[in-house]
Amino acid sequence: MASYTGVFTLSGLPFHFESQSKVRKLPAFSRSVSCSLSTSSSSSSSSSSRVTATATATTTETSEDSTEELNPKKFSYSRAAPSVRWPNLKLVEIHQPSQTHFNLAPNIPTHLVEESHSLGNAQEFSDGDEIEKIEDGAKLEEHDESLEVLGRPSKTKAKKMTKLALKRAKDWRRRVQILTDRILGLRPDEFVADVLDEGIVQMTPTDYCFVVKWVGQSSWQRALEVYEWLNLRHWYSPNARMLATILSVLGKANQEALAVEIFVRAEPAVGNAVQVYNAMMGVYARNGRFTKVQELLSLMQERGCEPDLVSFNTLINARLKSGPMGPNLATELLNEVRRSGLRPDIITYNTLISACSRESNLQEAIKVYGDMEEHKCLPDLWTYNAMISVFGRCGLACKAERLLRELESKGFLPDAVTYNSLLYAFAREGNVEKVEDICKEMMKKGFGKDEMTYNTIIHMYGKRGQYDLALQLYRDMKLSGRIPDAVTYTVLIDSLGKANKMTEAANLMSEMLDSGLKPTLRTFSALICGYGKAGMRLEAEETFKCMLKSGIKPDNLAYSVMVDILLRSNEPRKAMVLYQQMIRGGFVPDQSLYLALIRVLKKENEEQGLQKLILDMKALGGLNPLEISSLLVQGECFDDAAKMLRLAVSEGYGLRRENLLSILSSYSSSGLHLEAKELLDYFKECAPAFHQLVDEALVVVLCQANQLEAALKQYCKIREVGFFGSSIMYESLINCCEESKMFGDASQIFSDMRFYGVEPSQNIYQSMVQIYCNMSFPETAEQLVGEAEAKGITFTDICIYVDLIDAYGKVKELQQAERVVGQLRQKCKALDRKVWHALMQAYAASGCYEQARAAFNTMMRDGPPPTVDTMNILMHALIVDGRLNELYVVIQELQDMGFKISKSTIILMLDAFARAGNIFEVKKIYYGMKAAGYLPTMHLYKVMIGLLSRGKRVRDAEAMVAEMEEAGFKPDLFVWNSLLKMYTDIEDYRKTVQVYQRIQEAQLKPDENTYNTLILMYCRDHRPEEGLSLMHEMRKLGLDPKLDTYKSLLTACGKQQLFEQAEDLFNELHSKGYKLDRSFYHIMIKMYRNSGSHSKAEGLLVLMKEAGVEPSFATMHLLMMSYGSSGQPKEAEKVLDNLKLSDLSLTTLPYSSVIDAYLKNGDYNAGIQKLMEMKKDGLEPDHRIWTCFLRAASLCQGSSEAVLLLKVLQDSGFDVPLRLLIEDSKSLVLEVDHWLEKLQPLEDDAAFNFVNALVDLLWAFEFRATASWVFQLAVKRRIYRQGIFRVAEKDWGADFRKLSAGAALVGLTLWLDHMQDASLEGCPESPKSVVLITGASEYNMVSLNSTLKAYLWEMGSPFLPCKTRSGVLVAKAHSLRLWLKESPFCFDLELKDAPSLPHSNSMQLVEGCFIRHGLVPAFKDILMRLGEVRPKKFARLALLSDEKRDKTIRADIEGRREKLGKMEKKGRHSLSRMPVKHKKRKYVQRAMLANHDVIPLEKSSL
Q1: Helices (H), strands (E): how many in the chain?
Q2: In whole angstroms, what is the distance from residue 339 CA to residue 1028 CA?
Q3: Which own/partner pairs from 290-297 qualify as long-range (CB within 8 Å, at least 24 positions apart)?
Q4: Crossing angle of helices 625-634/607-619, nearest 10°?
């Protein structure tokens, strides 16, 4: 029957709270906690054995008492017992519980409440249970018997049981329990021998083994008495089991010396038993004596005793206790076990994972756990508890919680240690909610909060600054019956001291004393630190004195803290006195304290004291001259530092990189670059072994002297020889590159640094984050921030996160920017205003006004309050969002909130309206600013002039320039360039030259914009030769024209038929490697088309491909259109055939070009045939084909031909145009709108071209009301631009450019109708002149300018061609209103539909003019015989019959002749004396370009 049972006891090792021993850092505290040993004296009055036992016990007891005097009272953890660990199982706790069916694993190492410079309380686990499990697993797995029976049979006593009977007896546990209870019930003055001599129960040797074991669990002295009694009575000859048992008991009691004595004495008698060696190794392992364990293992092997798995588990345990774990140590130990032919078991793995937990070594723990899973070793509760602990220690609380759920799912029952470990994990993160949830779960499972639980939560609240909650929990702890220990008070005092709540901290110290607890050194140190932080020097001194009076001797940390307080309180004399006491006490200050003393002595000019301190640092502090020199440099004692540094080199001390570089950095920061260079030269001469280090230091010095180029060269030399350098060198290089904006070099240096394995510092992380943000790599920057924070680096500068948010905003990653802000809100109670501004600027850059407003509202609610910059960012967001009409609303809202609108906000609005081209609003804001007393600045004048120039507001721009000059500002080149462009755009070339003369008079140097504008002027003035000449002069000055300038020159040369010059210019651009886009090739194709050089146009396609510009369908379409416009549709069809042979996927575009060519040529059958061919090729007709057929139908002479073409479309699935002509058009409004909606998103202006063609068709066949609502649908859907014509207050105008002839006629009629209503009603008021923009270009062989002039001339309108701009008609407003009200042509401007489809087309295309069919003969007659005449005269002549018109024209010609004859007779026929108006011609004055450069002025056609 198996007799091994799990033992659930926890003996705690001392708590350790480690922190750096530095001045002004809050100290850490330690408390030794262990199970108290019960002692008893043993004596015997009847035998020598009792005397021996008594002597042994007395000696041990004395030793133990002395140990207890040195150590504080130990804390026993009551949750070690199974009944406490699993209260829900209702286990009955007996002295030695029997094996249950539950899989209850031994205890797990619990967590430590630890943090750098913090206080805490924790429970370390003891390996006692694990060792016991290792030992018992080998010793007592079976209740086997020895063949010997103790003693001899007595004839006077009752007959004893035979060996067989004893062996078969089932009541061994009861016998052992009876004897154990009797022994443990003895008084201190009674002896074990008295009980054993009675022989109350008959025992086997194995029974006695259990007696020794069970008694040893309560008193190792009594167990030793039993063992010695058995030896002295000779009833028992030592065997392996008994010896292993007593060694185990003594090992658990930390009685190593006694164990060694017994082992040495008894080992020869028992032979080479592996369990004995294992037990002795366990004794050594408990104290981490790895060397002793190794020696014992070697002894076993020498004697032929083969180690078993328990041996190796004990060896592993000893190694892990002997020192920290190195990399891959766990794997090496496991491999060692396997090399011995053994397989690691769960105890092996648990031992390793527990060691990883103690050292917070997550990586090794995961390796061990993975190895365990790989070798099919199932984890137990100990394993899970250890993994939970290590995850918690490493800040992975969520993973720890998942492990808890995993162990529950696998049938294990969490114990108190499990919950405490998980509690610590979340408390370490400050996750209050999870800590509360775990506490509730613990209470639900029957666990109560113990001292460890309270201390953990108190420490958490202290770290979070929630001191009231920490104090409340302390009170709850006392009310619940838990007694606060020294750690509890120390944690609270330390937390309150950090919060400057020294009154509460002092009260807690009083409570601690009242409760009978003696403050520890750490408690006093915590209170002193708090007083020092609060600047309460007197209280700190008083506490220090109390500590001395209480018998507690200060340690190094206490002295250092007190000296630092005195130094910071400007008490140097007291500090030096205490420093002397510290030295006499045998304590050595650390370097930070030495540095503080150096600085004070330097400040007080105590040269003698400084020299004595230097001697102390060397003699007492053990600092070498190099370290002393580093401290002296930091204390700005440069002369003494230089002496010590040279002394260090002369004495042969090796140079440490960090010290040398910090010394040189201090020199450089003080501007002593020459001294630093001399020092390096000295090192090169006297310390050649460190030439690499000197080279590295030279890089640092060069960087700090801002000699980056030399530093980079030196760095390259270092890298070539394979020397990596330190982080200080890389930091200097990176900072210098950052200052010089050499971000790419900085990134490369950082990559080198990481490649060489040099650990970046906080400053390097910070610099690289900013560099990557400037390079628009925010993801990389944030990755570096996370990497730094994972290493414990905290960025206190909020600008790091501001740069991250800005970078994410620049790349439009708004969700990432929001995530960064969200993380900051979790970390900080209140966000800095810079963070909110960065987020709002990110929103503003993307035009997300609503999100920016939400951030603004959050600032209003939670703080910090918005400023003027905040309001400007909010306005900027609205501006970028294009919601300029809401700016005034937001301004009013801000004023209602109490904000004052600043000048910067007003200028921001003005700039926004200026960029939008809203001249009216800009002028309103500008004059409002002047009325409010804000004087315009140079920037404001430039904005105003630039806007007015772009808007071609000539008079306003000229007035603004004059006002600017009156205000004392001189126009700069930007102002003159703006005027140049304005005059060029309006084709007022005379003033363009005058502006250029003003530039020269102001001695301003023309820039690229100036020359580009002048060249553009020549191109528009149809003088490309002068433009080419000016371009060559521009190149001589080192200025390069824009590609758009080249494009304008090419276009102008093509229009003027300067084909050779254009071709030369294009070839020059191509040979010089300019990246020309398709538009250049298209211009050349058009030029070759006009010149008839179709072969060159085809050759241009090859040139395009060679240049890497693939000809698009648009290119091929253009080529085919050139053939079509020249009346060569068959050539266009050849291009289509070539496209079919290529691998390109054809669309309807090339087919539409060929079809359009045939239709324009009047070959309708061929066009229809190509449509059928296209359908056979698998392409369905789309908007391109529809547009071609609609254009052709609109130009058909008869309706039958038009209907034929439209029926072809109907057969192809598109019947809307035909139905508009033959059905009630009102019923088709929704259907037309539906088609427009489908066409609008398509490319190539599909909807625009379709509407143009459809309206042309409807106008031509007199369905003009239908054309009107189609036109208005297009405006509503923004197919036609908004404001295509306008009748607003003092703003009457129209811009019909790019409209088809029919659409322009519809728009013109609607506009005239609106102006007629305004004229009759008197509002809106008209401007002085009304402008109609027609444009000078031709679209689809139709001139819009000629068409509208013919229409208006026929009506006798007052519109006349503009004298300064082509493509513009202007009418005086008075004349226009009068004509609209009185002209019979304007009596009925309503557009109506014909009652039925007319037989013929009402319009005809004549010489690019789309005019009424009946007007064609008169139009040709008048134009041919009289040329251009005024509108009223044209109207009168057009209305006459052919005979009367002929007669009138002849009379007019005759009258001209007679007038000319009279003039000749009077001698007034000289052209030089009479004003002559040259049609479309003007003279431009000469202007000097630069020195000898002149703009050649010749008579030019405008």
Answers
A1: 74, 13
A2: 90
A3: 290/315, 290/318, 290/319, 290/321, 290/322, 290/323, 291/322, 292/318, 293/318, 293/319
A4: 140
Query: In the 3-class helix/strand/coil scheme, how is 414-462 assigned residue by residue?
Result: CCHHHHHHHHHHHHHHCCHHHHHHHHHHHHHCCCCCCHHHHHHHHHHHH
What is each CA distance from 391 to 296, 352, 792, 1028, in whole angstroms? 35, 15, 17, 77
Dig out the tokens for 1431 from the structure: 């509108």
Residue 3, Cα to own-chain centre: how many angstroms? 62
Q: How far is the C-alpha of 819 from the C-alpha of 830, rounded, in Å? A: 16
CA 108/CA 1239 separation, integer angstroms: 74
Report strand pairing: 1291-1295 vs 1329-1333. parallel
- Of 645, 664, 710, 662, nearest to 718 (Cα)? 710
Residue 1145, number of CB atoms within 10 A of its CB: 6
Tokens at 725, concatenated: 């350098």
Question: Cα separation of 170 and 168, whole Å?
Answer: 6
Q: Which amino acid, 264?
A: V
**What average pLDDT does the chain have?**
77
Structural contact between residues 455 and 121, judged by C-beta atoms closer than 8 angstroms: yes
Find the mean pLDDT for residues 173-178. 84
Q: Which two tokens stand for residue 37?
A: 């040993």
- Burial of 956-966, coded b for 16+ CB within 10 Å and e otherwise, reads bbbebbeebee
Q: Specify whether the CB–CB gap between 891 and 885 falls below 8 A.
A: no
Give the residue-averaged pLDDT of 124-139.
38
Report in angstroms the alpha-carbon separations of 956 from 108, 279, 936. 88, 106, 16
Question: What angle is formed at CA 503 by the lines to CA 498 and CA 504, rounded to 5 degrees?
Answer: 75
835 vs 812: CA distance, rounded Å: 17
329 neighbors 313 (Cβ within 8 angstroms): no
Please write down the HEC assignment for all residues of 1088-1114. Answer: HHHHCCHHHHHHHHHHHHHCCCCCCHH
What are the DSSP calls for 208-221, one per residue?
HHHHHHHHHTT-HH
What is the pLDDT at residue 28? 32
Q: In residues, how long is the chain? A: 1502
Q: Which residue has the tokens 């309380």?
A: 121
H helical segments located in 499-637 = 502-514, 521-533, 537-549, 556-568, 572-584, 591-603, 607-619, 625-634
Predicted pLDDT of residue 68 = 35
Q: What does the alpha-carbon distance between residue 490 and residue 483 come to, in Å, rounded to a whole number?
A: 14
Q: Please name the amino acid found at residue 944.
A: M
Cα separation, 617 vs 631, in Å, equals 10
Cα torsion 1174, 1176, 1177, 1183 to 10°: value is: 40
CA distance 1478 to 529: 99
Cα(1209)–Cα(311) distance, integer angstroms = 98
Q: How far is 1067 from 541, CA to CA, in rounded Å? A: 92
Q: What is the pLDDT of residue 1274?
A: 92
- pLDDT per residue as tens digits for the range 198-236: 777 878 778 888 888 888 888 888 888 888 888 776 555
Q: Please tell me the number of Cα atoms within 13 Å of 149 on its side-chain side.
A: 12
Tokens of 1280: 């036609």
Partners of residue 895 on adjacent β-strands? none
Structure tokens at 626: 């190099």
> For position 92, what pLDDT does the model report?
43
- Residue pair 349/372 in contact by the 8 Å Cβ criterion: yes
Task: Give the CA count within 13 Å in the CB-facing half-sphere of 450.
Answer: 18
Instruction: Quote the CA–CA distance of 1449 and 257 in Å, as a whole number.
Output: 144
User: Which tens digit of pLDDT belongs to each residue from 1212-1246?
Assistant: 889 999 998 888 888 888 889 999 999 988 887 88
N-terminal to C-terminal alpha carbon distance within the chain: 121
